Amino acid sequence: MHFNLKINSAKDELSFKKNSALVKFFVESKKLEKTLDDFFISLNYPLGKIQKKNFLDKKSNELTYYSHSGEPSVLFIKKVKIDKDFSTDFFRNYFAGLVTSLKKKNLNSVHVVVPSFLDLKDHFENESQLLRSLIEGIHLGNYTFDNYKSDKEKPEELSFFIHYTDQKILSSAIDYSNKLMNAVFFSRDLVNEPSITLTPEELANRTKKELTKLGVKVSVFNKAELKRRKMNAILAVGGASDKPPCLITMHYKPSGKAKRKIALVGKGVCYDSGGLSIKPTSSMIEMKADMAGGGAVIGIIKAAAMMKLPVEIIGVVPAVENMIGGSSYKPGDVVKAASGKTIEVKDTDAEGRIVLADALHYASQQKPDEIIDFATLTGAVVVALGDIAAGLFTNDDRLADELLQSGKNTYERLWRLPFWKDYNEMIKSDIADVSNLGPRWGGAITAGKFLEHFVDEKIPWAHIDLAGPAIKHKSNNYTEKYDTGFGVRLMVEYLSKI
């Protein structure tokens, strides 16, 4: 179940209607008790001694107060401790949890009093970033993927009224966040869609339908065109499926002069059985989400078009299914990629890097100012970083620094791993130019070094392995049930700073 949600900017004066709630934050300080007392006195509500004592206790940080005589009918009181452990995800995570808890609570409106930016200026770059984190949390708490539920309930109406001193900044933050989250949700819907319906062709169709109406040019290279372009890496991985592979290209151009031309490449493996190097069943269940990198690229371009960002973007998504059949590519095969380089196949379950070989070469041919690729590429990166961060691999310090900062601002965090040339030794092949698999150790790094072989060395490039945070996980309130759309918020922040 989800709400028909409306988020509004509100004036300073609180005006409650029937079945309303109020969210109020209190920053921890020596004056906390007096501030709390003054607040309840201003509402003419009695605060019980036990409730007050429990809220002020160091082990407690929130209080839900129900009124029996007036509006608001519910108060959600939250304590904010601003210290070294405070993060820019605090409000996003809180509101994602709050909205989920409001389902079936018979509330029509929620008023939110935003804390003073002065109390939080050491953690947020500006007021807009603070406000957007809060608004994003409201949206994220409302996300659901119930397309295949037979007992779907009719959405209830719920309005949020955000109270903040600067109405202009607030209105801009609401508009920005509404567009951004629309794109995030489109990306999430793609990633959460079962592979029985989201075939490579269907991924291409949905991309074209969604993006062309925003002025983005979308082209699809079918199997015949892939053969003509000698994209044998994509053809090899997709060869055993009765759902033919394709390459989806997107081109967004701003109305004015572009500040930069960027190529975004996303792994679009719509299902990964592992091929002949077959996965166990437990490892296959989430493999409908092996196109999360491609889903992120599509979502990023949708957001850029909606926001009219002054950056030219070329999106490239190789869409395939890695299946088993008489035409499967095999361990021991040698595949000649579109670049002319040859790949020794040692493991058909290391297929993502193979399809990206052709995609990265195509992206390089477009002569962008930089290339950034996104892929659920390795389990090794999850072993290293868990599901709370994506691995960042690049030899370009400027690109690394800007992406890391954008990750910090949006809480879609990246961690830069070493990318020294020494790792190339691990993927040398005796019979081809490069092997698609190295030794067990350093697996995420050697996968990135494989990709490096297919990128023009003159073009700044970064590889983001999001195998951990792209898949649903329990790290916070908005990633528990559904695959996450990781990368869209991160990259819109990055592109907006150009």
Kindly describe this structure.
The structure is a single chain. Helix 3 packs parallel to helix 4, helix 5 packs antiparallel against helix 10 (292-307) and helix 11 packs parallel to helix 14. The chain is elongated. Strand 3 and strand 4 form a beta hairpin. The chain has helices at residues 32-43, 49-56, 90-101, 127-141, 167-192, 200-212, 223-228, 232-237, 281-284, 292-307, 352-365, 380-385, 397-410, 443-452, 488-496; strands at 3-10, 20-27, 62-66, 74-80, 109-113, 156-163, 217-221, 246-252, 261-266, 268-272, 312-322, 334-336, 342-344, 370-375, 390-394, 414-416, 434-435, 461-465. The protein has 15 helices and 18 strands. It folds into two domains: 3-180, Leucine Aminopeptidase, subunit E, domain 1; 198-496, Aminopeptidase (3-Layer(aba) Sandwich), CATH 3.40.630.10. It is of the alpha/beta class. Strands 7, 8, 9, 10, 11, 14, 15, 16 and 18 form a nine-stranded mixed beta sheet that branches.
